Amino acid sequence: MTKQIHLAAHFPGVNNTTVWADPESRSQIDFASFEHLAATAERGTFDFFFLAEGLRLREVKGRIHDLDVVGRPESLTVLSALAAVTTHLGLAATVNSTFNEPYELAKRIATLDHLSGGRAAWNVVTSWDAFTGENFRRGGYLDKADRYVRAQESLRIVRKLWDSWADDDLVLDQEAGVFAREGTGAFADEGAHFGIRGRFGLPPSPQGRPVVIQAGDSDQGRDFAASGADVIFSRHGSFAAGQTFYKDVKDRLAKYGRTEESLKIMPAVTVVVADTDAEAVEKARHIREQQVSGPTAIVLAELIWGRDLSAYDPDGPLPTEDPVIGSNVTQGRAGFNDPASIIKEWREAADANGWSLRQTVINQQNRQTFIGSPETVATEMNRHVQENAADGFVLVPHLTPGGLDDFVDRVIPLLRERAVFRSEYAGTTLRSHLGLLQ
Amino acid sequence: MSRLITAIEIDGAGGHPGAWRGPEVDPGAILTGSLALRAVQRAEAAGIDIATFVDTLEAPVDEVSVRLDALGLAARIAPATSRIGLLPTITVTHTEPFHVQAQVATLDWVSSGRGGWVADVSTSTEAAAVIGRRDPAPAADLWREARYVVDVSRRLWDSWDDDAIIRDAPTGRFIDRDRLHYVNYESPTFTIKGPSIVPRPPQGHPLTAVRVNTPEALEAAGDAELVLLPGTENLAERVQAIRAAGQEPAGGGLRLLVSVAVLLDEDAATAHGRAEGGSFDYVGGVEGLAGLVREWQAAGVDGVHFRPASLELDVPVIAEKLLPLLGVTAADRPGTTLRNRLGLARPASRYAEEGAR
Lengths: 438, 357
Fold this sequence. Notes:
The complex is a heterodimer of chains A (438) and B (357).
Chain A: E1 6-10, H1 31-43, E2 48-51, E3 59-60, E4 63-64, H2 75-82, E5 90-96, H3 102-115, E6 120-125, H4 130-133, H5 147-162, E7 170-173, E8 178-180, E9 186-190, E10 195-199, E11 211-214, H6 219-228, E12 231-234, H7 239-253, E13 264-269, E14 271-273, H8 277-291, H9 294-305, E15 330-331, H10 339-353, H11 357-364, E16 370-372, H12 374-386, E17 392-395, H13 405-417, H14 430-434
Parallel strand pairs in A: 1-2, 1-17, 2-5, 5-6, 6-11, 11-12, 12-13, 13-17, 14-16
Antiparallel strand pairs in A: 3-4, 3-15, 7-8, 9-10
Chain B: E1 5-10, H1 29-32, H2 34-45, E2 50-53, H3 70-77, E3 85-91, H4 97-110, E4 116-120, H5 125-131, H6 139-157, E5 165-168, E6 173-175, E7 185-186, E8 191-192, E9 207-211, H7 215-221, E10 226-230, H8 235-245, E11 255-264, H9 268-275, E12 282-284, H10 286-298, E13 303-308, H11 311-325, H12 338-342, H13 350-353
GO molecular function, one term (chain A): oxidoreductase activity, acting on paired donors, with incorporation or reduction of molecular oxygen
Binding site for FMN (chain A): 94, 148, 218
Family (chain A): Belongs to the NtaA/SnaA/DszA monooxygenase family.
């Protein structure tokens, strides 16, 4: 059976994927930017709009990183505002389970779900580091090993609160004066990380309960997603890695009594569209050059080498030193598991092509996932989905806020023509868009 | 006498516990937010300056036993309004100060400078139990802590200079990091490193309001830019006491509003019939209330915070009948931000002033 593609729009993030020096680049904080991208996504009948989260500004060598976009709003507040200016688009908030309590999460996300008529999603993320903890009452209290234990317990409790009302508990009988059944929403829970009790003050929304998204990639993270997520936001955008990841995660579902359709796998991808494939390749190269300035090349190399490389010329050869494992040269973002093998690959590529450090970073890191004419991009994306490398994609544009304009104007019509993507929304809730049970 | 400030409170279908039962109310609209939205839009059209949104951490125990998160509701209303200030109640006892300040800053961004908050504490055992991290504590302790939360929020709002974003292509720098500041805040119950994740909000400091409904809250009133003073007894004395305690916050001036539960109907019998089961500072026609408002103004308040019995019945009367009597119109308010509207200056960042760069 032909699968239908699911699409999400990621608001440009605080990393070097986002090009801020382009003349088209606008504010990362003005509401107008969020409104523009959400309107584009809704025009393209996307499934949802996705917002990441920040809890501490990233640092390099003990100082705030200044080369990428810095600063962003609090996700749920922006999405509640976007509920006012959209009608069908799903609204997904990344919110940390380590530095938030389940009751607050349940209340705030359920509020968004009601305000949007059943369009809310929660992307459950975890952190554990003392660096982030310095902004919070509890500090860095959680062991890395415990982060999924807490996240899993947090998600279980949040869902318990969302499910704490029976369908007929909301009575709304004005004449009899009964708003809701007595004592409805009562809950109590004791676990390793939480001991809470009380009453939850919101009934189910039109979609029953918010959609849950998960992005974990470790073995533990994949099991967490397979046991309880509705959507996986994966990093495996390439065809081969996508297929491997897809099979691995979908194979885990049976042990949790779930069907393959109940979990959608949506890798983060980047797209470059131009009139012809050759023009798209040229445009992609230009964007990569914008994304990796000389200073950025040095910082990205420092992330891998784990040491100060500021003495190096980005337009000169690669550093000759070995990497330092487990250094804290950068804070507030994920490091690399096997820097030595990355460096080996980089040296080989640089030697073979005569590349400078900057050229090596440009060519070896984060090349765009789909590059080509609208026809090529539509064909490739559809192939990824039909051949089970993905159920859809989270599109990460490089420009704020117009980065998906081209995609929606030029690629979406082709996907619609092939009847692999909706021409209009069939339902009003995010669960309905994703084909999940209400 | 200076221009009267007016505010309106949003709570379910209204302040009367049975307001949702009126035939004019669609009770389902409490949950979609559309009842609140309509009331705020009516208030805005009539020239009301501020909408406040009731909230508690725990679920309400009233007839209407549901409540949307006030911050989310205010954010939902922001793009659908353009002039009115939006102040959700946010409790600080069991929540993270770093999140609270980011939320209020974001509300200020999405409303283009009309954001603020009513800072409150959670003294109940119910609120403590839904989070399960801290035992209930005496109000005096919690308000002391709340003052630290207000203080650190303002510091975090100042932790980005207004001109921190430089987009300097030649050097590849998006920000000038010397214009971002660690707050390194220490209070008896929490510490925060900073800076905020949110760039400095449009108003510099979104408006901080405190409802002085207990003696313990009185102390925190001195830190607020907007004080809501419930009840009308001994008004002049209470106003004087608060003004005496006021610390003159950055941006200058404290705005003090008497906060009154009102039910309006020209027909006395109808009014008193509707009032049954509720508790009000005023029940009756608009002329009588207009007279009282002038008395309260003479007692020294800057304005009135109306808590309508029913959003559907009383807000239209306040908007269309009462405000014209008080000389309030939509046209006579300057500026676009809430601070402009209330005549409060936009505070400079304390860190920028220290010349840290």
